[in-house]
Write a structure and sequence with these properties.
6 helices
Amino acid sequence: MNHQGGKQWGKLKEGQKKQLDDINESYVTGGKYEDVDNLPDKLLAFRDQFMEFDEDNSGDIDLMELKRMMEKLGQAKTHLELKKMIAEVDTNDSGTIHYHEFLDMMLGKRSTILKIILMFESMNKDKEQPTGVAPKKSLADLP
């Protein structure tokens, strides 16, 4: 029995991170998206987002991973809706979303349902949540 699952998982994630970084580098030097502001920073954010949802490190987001991703974002969808979302992005008809397709979707001009949801989610993440005890209110504070 192998008791080193955590270490192996970490190595697997590091390997995936390196592969995605190599792809990111090709996007930076490729020139196709040179008009995008802060391209390297955006690519790092997209890499982290992709890695979070590619649960099995296959390099693709399949139907079930997309389903869990949408549920995490509070946007549960039916299988038919998920298949439509994948079909909008899937350029090689594999039935999954590969990292290249994910980047083209996020950096491209065309709006897809998935892109809109992910952008909305990232905007909500950036908002700072208030901490501490809420201030006391009185009836005089009401409009």
